[in-house]
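Help! Submission page says 'invalid entity' but I think these are all valid:
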Amino acid sequence: MRSDRGQSAPLGLKIAAACGLLFLHLPILLIFVYAFTTEEKSFVWPPPGLTTQWFAVTWNRPDVWDALSLSVRVAAISTAIALVLGTLCAAAVSQTRFFGREAISLLVILPIALPGIITGIALRSAFALADIPFSFWTIVLGHATFCVVVVYNNAVARFRRTSGSMIEASMDLGADGFQTFRHVVLPNIATALLAGGMLAFALSFDEVIVTTFTAGQQQTVPIWMLEELIRPRQRPVTNVVAMVVVLVTLLPILLAYYLTRDGDQIAGSGK
Amino acid sequence: MRGALSDLFWRRPKFLLTLMLAPPLLWLGIVYIGSLFALLAQSFFSIDEFSGLINRQFTLKTYGDLFQAANLDIILRTVTMAALVTLASAVIAFPIAYYAARYARGRWKALFYLGVMLPLWSSYLVKIYAWKLILAKEGILTWLLAKLNLLWLLDGWLSLPIVGGNSLSVSFTGTFIVFVYVWLPFMILPVQAALERVPGNLVEASSDLGASPGQTFRNVLFPLALPGIVAGSIFTFSLTLGDYIIPQIIGTSRLFIGQAVYSQQGTAGNIPLAAAFTVVPIVIMGFYLWGAKRMGAFDAL
């Protein structure tokens, strides 16, 4: 039958798709090799030898630990704020129809739809006008603003799939609004919130453009890396940190994927 | 007390809605929109060229400065790069998205999805760093081309004006490659979403009616995928317009808009001009989004 022909892809398409995926992945894999190279000064390939000594050197660098600690604290607080704001916004937008609904979804998306440099310099000029000195909280202010959208997107998608009849049933059975939220709504959206939170954490942990404008002298991990890229001090340490950063951001993403996977299949993956 | 509150919410849903919307709207309204207005206001200030102080009086002088030849050059260079990056991303994204949408099933489909999501979410700076390693003079690309006896090709390309340079890591070609690499996943996902909605039998009908694969692509697939491509191009175009880190780390000394903004507000201390520069991508993206909405690209997001 003719329709059976559609089951196998033409060779050219297969090759093009495979090349595209390789193009996306090979550079990241390269980072892992460079973390073990014995070459200190240049980016020479292939590595003249392999060693694990740079992991110990990196472990003993206080500046790396300081940056890591700041990044984790900023990401944790920003994620918490984004979870509250994003969920509230998603609940309001998905459960009811009201005037200005479209404008609100645009407002939430805007901080990542416009280039990061605009958010960054806007915040900086606002801090300057209001005489707010740079601090931990100026970084959080920026990060939470663009993290809201990730939580919002995940929560909205889940709210749309949560049927209203369950909430009505809960109410009919005598539960008040808070009980319904606690026992019906929350368990339904919990994994979506967790996924959104993971992604928000990864987004904040990795953010560099907005941070350069709101951090002053403080160094998050990406700022530390940027500094090393512009004025390299010890290349092998940068290699090791780069590898660690890849691992630290991959885990939340894989987890987030795992958490939302089942729901997406129910929704028919866009069909 | 709790019951009364719950009843109140039930009877007056508007009250609950206001209560839910107030925190996010206050945050985004004050922190984000407020800052944007602060920025916009500053673009109407001007800088005193002798004292270096900012004159807080309404003027259009700073916008006039944008039209100096050097600044126009920066804007033109950035927009050209953004357009080329968008075009290249669309070309590379299409086969991946098409394969994932039409042929990949079950486990392969999940693998494809992850295969696009992981690079999308992995660290932006690490990705740039990886390309620094690849494009550097002593790096892996030179090594590979030497093995294949193709070094003459690289040298020939690098000797070209504008796109060439000392090595790929300090040339526009390098900047272009890294931009395409970093934004490509943003193009794949919407194109794939658009192609998922194309029924497979449409393609079969086209070939049954005697169309060649090329004709099917031009007359059936491409028009149906176009809203997805436009949706993806919003990201690739906008992100390239605003980025200043990629051209700073892998590129020439000739500036892009983002770098101009960064140096104007930092070393030059000319916040009004920096603010006026950021208005350029905002205006361009405003028109772009307006056009994209008319093409129905928002439904493909």
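Support: the input was valid. A stray whitespace character was the problem, and the output above is from the cleaned input. The mean pLDDT of chain B is 87.
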